[in-house]
Write a structure and sequence with these properties.
Helices cover 24% and strands 28% of the residues. It has seven helices and 21 strands. Helix 5 runs parallel beside helix 6. The chain is elongated.
Length: 307
């Protein structure tokens, strides 16, 4: 059976696209991939998604979206795409167990935040460790926090966090930054920001207590270690868009899918939504909006073909 729509990814973008295409009677198939629900599943409290005045748990929000899509006829499968064939239609989507032909494809595979690779970081994710200052900064009012990184995102988020935190410790493994000079100037003028350079985060305390109480810092010069009290850690060392299977088939820029107009990619009938193309905002609400746009454009594309 040739599907009218296949959606790759079940985060905010993918499930919103599923809601819209399902309500249009297109019976979408959603292939969830390795991270069902996307990055929101790593977030405990979401306070900036419209419609939830008291906030909502990240996993609960994506579960609500999925149930809403399923109510209108969307089908979800926990399968990971291993390869795609986009040179001719119907497109062919292969997973580890099945092969699916489709007339249109919506790519909402997201981007994965790069992590420090610490066991304590993994255990405390969503419990004081975050990869999004815009999402979680407000939870750290009048507290000391650390942010790790040396690019524009890290410096921008350090400045943003000073709106809430009493102090922001910016930890960078070198003494030179990739961030732009104007951003660095702004950060250096901010009295709440302390720069800790030539240093890496070697550990985060305390997983046993299920909360962040301190970080263990290691000098990149002499290997000496110190412990610094903080109540939150923000990791800002970049994101990797989940686009490996599209290399050579879709136009990419630094791994992110390039959009021509609206949600259209370089291949007719293939659309993209969310963090897989958005390297600027990366918010649940912008991903949902992008999923809506991709779904409407896919519907109109099929309608123009007489389906």
């Amino acid at each position: 059976m040739v599907r009218d729509v296949i959606i790759l990814g079940s985060g905010c973008a993918g499930s919103t696209a599923a809601i819209y295409t399902a309500r249009a009677n297109l019976s979408p198939l959603v292939l969830e991939g390795r991270e069902p629900g996307g990055q929101l599943t790593l977030t405990t409290e979401v306070e900036n998604f419209p419609g939830f005045p008291e906030g909502i748990q990240g996993p609960e929000l994506v579960d609500f979206m999925r149930k809403q899509a399923e109510r209108f006829g969307a089908e979800y499968k926990t399968e990971t795409v291993t390869s795609v064939e986009l040179s001719r239609r119907p497109f062919t989507i292969r997973t580890e167990v099945n092969e699916y032909p489709c007339r249109t494809l919506i790519v909402a595979t997201g981007a994965s935040a790069r992590m420090l690779g610490l066991e304590s970081e993994r255990k405390l994710m969503g419990r004081g460790v975050s990869t999004c200052a815009t999402c979680d900064g407000a939870f750290f009012r009048n507290r000391e926090v650390a942010i790790v990184g040396g690019g524009d995102t890290a410096v921008e988020e350090a400045v943003f966090l000073t709106r809430f935190a009493s102090k922001v410790i910016l930890v960078h493994r070198r003494d030179q930054f990739r961030a732009s000079k104007i951003l660095l100037e702004r950060a250096r003028k901010n009295p709440k920001i302390e720069f800790v350079l030539n240093t890496v985060v070697a550990g985060i305390l305390d997983p046993q207590k299920n909360e962040v109480s301190a970080i263990r810092l290691k000098s990149a010069k002499d290997g000496s270690e110190t412990v610094r009290k903080v109540e939150g850690v923000f990791v800002a060392i970049g994101h990797d868009p989940n686009t490996k299977v599209f290399e050579g088939q879709l136009a990419l820029d630094d791994g992110y899918i390039v959009l021509r107009e609206g949600a259209r990619t370089s291949v007719e009938g293939v659309f993209a939504a969310g963090d897989v193309h958005d390297k600027v905002y990366r918010q649940a609400v912008t991903a949902a909006g992008a999923g809506c746009r991709a779904a409407i454009e896919a519907e109109r594309f099929l309608e123009a073909e007489g389906r």
